[in-house]
Amino acid sequence: MKLTSIEEREYDRYLATFEFEQYIRGKTFLLTGCKGIVGSGIIKWLLLKNQRDNSEVSIIASTRTPEEIPSYIEEGDNISFCKFGDEKNYCKDKKIDYIIHAASPTGNTFHASNPVESLRVIIDETEKILEIACKNKGCSLIYLSSEEVYGLPKDETPIDETYVGAIDSLTVRSCYPLGKKVAELLCYNYSIEYNVDAKIIRPTVIHGLLQKYTEQRVVNEILRCVVENKNFVMKSSGLTKKCLMFSLDAISAIFTVLFKGEKGQAYNASNPNTFLTVKDLANHVFSKFNPNICIEFANTDISVSEGYLPKRTLLQKIDKLENLGWYPMTELDRIYSIDIERFSKKSGE
Q: What residues does 268 pair with on adjacent strands?
């Protein structure tokens, strides 16, 4: 496996802090969504453990394009790729120890234009993956849900995992959070009825180190503005307020819940120190890294029509996850400085 020097530096920090060797040695992982920011980060973590410690981890990676092998994979890496949706057939003669179900339709525009497909993929694929866990005695599964299951909270009261957020079922964009809620329910019910060791994690916005330069999210557009020395065009009021977390904080949280979490339980994953409105986030990053640029507001708020959620305020409590020994290691300025270092010399990498 090939890592960049920046990736090696950042992974070294996390491997020195979070030690999961006793859980992963000689185990086989099934991973869906293997080409996203989370999936690729998990693969790199596990393959790096194989290189450094000969951990003998095997990975089965599910993707819509299994014929397109990521450029960081090298001959001899203990990983195979299967077609997304065909995991049950591919794994029928294999013993699976852990399942990380990270696959989901992404992108606000896609959710808005393909709500039925978004909903069906989230629910149907989760059921298929849970059936694989059922057939592998002793298998542990973690489902990557979303902070969107909390609906549209409006104040800054910290929210724990018992909070039940209302979501409008007569709104097209609700296909994503309602799909995630149903998938969570499936995980919980399989844990109760079939004794599947299924856990749920609800991460906030994940960013840094592993996303593509062109990724269409507001946190990444702020980065591009810094790198390209251009003003940031705000398509909304910019008053949505929530947190973001570094990719390796998210991955260490996923492993922590998978290995140490309680069956049938959900866990928040976030970094409360990054709790800012979109507007304040942009202003902070610009003042720190490129004070020559600023925010320009669009003439009309078109955020909802483009598939974004309405204004919301969401601060997740992370006590439950911290009680398992996890904590976020990377703060806001370092998240952005890493990516500016990655892309400033060659934007579009």
A: 202
What Rg do the C-alpha atoms of the chain give, in angstroms? 20
Which segments in the chain show pLDDT lower than 50? 305, 347-349
Handedness of CA 228, 231, 237, 242 (dihedral sign): positive
- Nearest Cα neighbor of 83 from 21, 146, 136, 32 is 32
Which one-letter amino acid corresponds to residue 284?
Answer: H
Query: What's the CA gap between 222 and 244, in Å, rounded?
Result: 13
How confident is the model at residue 87, as a pLDDT? 97
Query: 216 is written with which tokens?
Result: 């269409």
Please give the torsion angle defined by the CA atoms of residues 254, 256, 261 and 263, in that order, rounded to the nearest 10 degrees.
40
Please check whether residue 274 is in contact with residue 239, taking contact to mean a CB–CB distance below 8 angstroms: no
Instruction: Kindly report each contact of residues 283-289 with a partner whose C-beta sits within 8 Å and lies 24 or more positions away, as own/partner.
Output: 284/332, 285/222, 285/223, 285/226, 285/332, 285/336, 286/222, 286/225, 286/226, 286/232, 288/333, 288/336, 289/226, 289/336, 289/337, 289/340
Contact status, residue 293 vs residue 226, Cβ threshold 8 Å: yes
In the chain, what are the helix, strand and coil shares in percent, each to the nearest 5? 40, 15, 45
Please report, as a single letter, which amino acid is at residue 110. F
pTM recorded for the entire structure: 0.95
Tell me what pLDDT residue 8 has.
97
Query: From CA 243, how far away is CA 160, in angstroms rounded?
Result: 14
- The alpha carbon of 91 is separated from its chain's Cα centroid by a whole number of angstroms, namely 24
- pLDDT of 80 reads 98
101 DSSP β-pair partners? 32, 143
Residue 272 CB coordination number (10 Å): 15
Q: How far is CA 21 from the centre of its chain?
A: 22
In this structure, are strands 276-277 and 241-242 parallel, antiparallel, or unpaired?
antiparallel
